Amino acid sequence: MPSRQPRLPGLEDIEQLVYPDHTPSASIQTRFEAFHELNPWVLRELERRTAECVEAGWRRIGIGMLFELLRFRYGQATRGDEFRLNNNWRSRYVRLLLERHPDWEPLFEVRALRAV
Question: Within a domain: residue 100?
Answer without folding.
Answer: yes
